[in-house]
Design goal:
Length: 84
């Protein structure tokens, strides 16, 4: 894709995001803000995300992250049950 095509793709993405955000409530926007902050943290560590060229296994990394979430939620649940 040439530079003009990439610029148009970026413009379209900003427009689509704006249209979607305009329909959301405050809490939905807060959720998106949290996700955007995570993306920014990843960007600071790894650079801009280029999904097509990225060699990471997003499926495997996602599965591992979900497993971690399940462990953390179970531990939080057990801790809250113990304090009752």
């Amino acid at each position: 894709m040439d530079a003009l095509g990439k610029q148009q793709q970026e413009t379209n993405a900003y427009y689509e995001l704006g249209v979607i955000v305009a329909t959301l409530g405050t809490d939905e926007i807060r959720v998106l803000t949290r996700i955007a902050n995570r993306l920014r943290m990843s960007q600071a560590a790894c650079g801009y995300l280029h999904v097509a060229a990225d060699e990471r296994s997003f499926r495997a990394e996602g599965r591992e992250a979900l497993e971690d979430v399940l462990v953390h939620l179970a531990c939080a649940w057990l801790k809250s049950e113990a304090s009752r």
